[in-house]
């Protein structure tokens, strides 16, 4: 069934319900949002603003932001600068439940929690982030991540990688492995490599970082490579898949990484595995064989399970990348669509924007922007819209882009967490 046919079916069903039971149609719809990150908090706040009753379910009492976490790893800011509580979310009128969803009963429109309670919903919004595929790299599992952190979920892993770098002796080798697409934050491994190279250049100048890559091309590649040539010619090396960058296996106990191009014994290893939607999405029937949740690009409603909307990193959003900016934009569109569907209105076709800032050094930044629109059952790039920072720019321009990225981070975290 096409996305448009799905929407017609849903709207028809809602209209029939409203005619059959007008008293129910007047009741305030109950919306449950799962996941307290950029997508989930944005959706919850927007839904409250639109007059709906919202319960946000998040197992942690605090949220640690992936954006800016690379700066924490490189010693440029403390972990506390990227950690937030939910007091401001509660003040905005969202009911926040600190618990973990264990099961979704789609037919009964109810989510079950680890604390043995359950929540009924009229519509469910899922923004659960990603899960690491610990089965994808021989030798790399959750236990191995305690020696070779992925740090691709910010928090304890961020702190661990930061402490490993700080404790490393000058002259040590740092190895980062970057996965194949798709994964959370496409330019993230290369920003991390850049900021670690900055850390090494300024504090451990005899050390070096090598990026082993499972692919031959990556986001903002010309801009990163120009920065590396200028800033870190002796401290950073990128090895693409064509030159042996793809990992074969790891031995966390011996601190050995084997790639197609050779064997490495780093002092610090940052292994970023492939990713997929979390297990809950598979258990609920939302995720497909490719590992992600396919959605209607207008409403973000699952094409597999009616009444459930999926946004952010877990969704298969076509050309739109998995980023915090994307999740924020998707959540606003999704919230309006949920309000429209609850009110038996046809959602408008949206236009979504993503802007992604990256740092190559504390005062050296650049960005990419894109505009996306629904086409059939996917979000596609709008031709001629958006684009990259210029390949050649004065130092002052790069410093301004770095400042703009920092301003975006301050603005969005204040907007969401208060």
UniProtKB/TrEMBL annotation:
Keywords: FAD, Flavoprotein, Signal. Residues 31-142 form the FAD/NAD(P)-binding domain. This is Cytochrome c. The lineage of its organism: Bacteria, Pseudomonadati, Pseudomonadota, Alphaproteobacteria, Hyphomicrobiales. Gene3D superfamilies: FAD/NAD(P)-binding domain, Flavocytochrome c sulphide dehydrogenase, flavin-binding domain. Residues 349-417 form the Flavocytochrome c sulphide dehydrogenase flavin-binding domain. GO terms for molecular function: flavin adenine dinucleotide binding; oxidoreductase activity. PANTHER family: FAD-DEPENDENT PYRIDINE NUCLEOTIDE-DISULPHIDE OXIDOREDUCTASE, PTHR43755. Residues 158-273 form the Sulfide dehydrogenase [flavocytochrome c] flavoprotein chain central domain. Residues 1-20 form the signal peptide. Pfam families: FCSD-flav_bind, FCSD_central, Pyr_redox_2.
């Amino acid at each position: 069934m096409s996305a448009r046919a799905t929407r017609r079916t849903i709207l028809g069903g809602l209209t029939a319900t409203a005619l059959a039971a007008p008293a129910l149609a007047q009741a305030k719809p109950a919306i449950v949002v799962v996941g307290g990150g950029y997508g989930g908090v944005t959706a919850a706040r927007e839904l409250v603003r639109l007059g709906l009753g919202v319960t946000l379910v998040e197992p942690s009492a605090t949220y640690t932001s992936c954006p800016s976490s690379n700066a924490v790893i490189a010693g440029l800011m403390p972990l506390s600068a990227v950690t937030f509580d939910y007091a401001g979310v509660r003040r905005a009128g969202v009911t926040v439940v600190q618990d973990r969803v264990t099961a979704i009963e789609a037919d009964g429109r109810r989510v079950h929690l680890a604390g043995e309670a359950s929540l009924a919903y009229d519509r469910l919004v899922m923004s659960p982030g990603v899960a690491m595929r610990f089965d994808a790299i021989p030798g790399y599992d959750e236990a191995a991540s305690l020696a070779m952190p992925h740090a691709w979920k910010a928090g304890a892993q961020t702190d661990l990688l930061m402490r490993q770098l700080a404790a490393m002796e000058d002259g040590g080798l740092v190895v980062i492995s970057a996965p194949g697409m798709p994964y959370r934050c496409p330019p993230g491994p290369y920003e991390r490599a850049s900021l670690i190279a900055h850390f090494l250049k300024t504090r451990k100048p005899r050390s070096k970082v090598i990026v082993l890559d499972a692919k031959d091309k990556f986001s903002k590649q010309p801009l990163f490579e120009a920065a590396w040539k200028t800033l870190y010619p002796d401290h950073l090396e990128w090895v693409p898949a064509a030159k042996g960058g793809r990992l074969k296996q790891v031995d966390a106990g011996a601190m050995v990484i084997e790639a197609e191009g050779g064997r490495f014994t780093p002092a610090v290893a940052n292994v970023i595995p492939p990713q997929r939607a979390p297990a809950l999405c598979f258990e609920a029937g939302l995720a497909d064989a490719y590992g992600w949740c396919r959605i209607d690009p207008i409403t973000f409603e699952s094409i597999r399970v009616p009444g459930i909307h999926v946004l952010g990193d877990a969704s298969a959003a076509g050309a739109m990348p998995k980023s915090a900016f994307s999740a924020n934009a998707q959540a606003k569109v999704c919230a309006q669509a949920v309000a429209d569907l609850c009110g038996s209105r046809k959602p408008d076709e949206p236009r979504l924007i993503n802007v992604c800032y990256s740092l190559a050094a504390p005062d050296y930044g650049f960005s990419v922007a894109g505009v996306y629109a629904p086409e059939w059952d996917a979000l596609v790039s709008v031709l001629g819209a958006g684009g990259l920072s210029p390949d050649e720019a004065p130092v002052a321009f790069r410093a301004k882009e770095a400042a703009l990225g920092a301003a975006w981070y301050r603005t969005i975290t204040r907007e969401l967490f208060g």
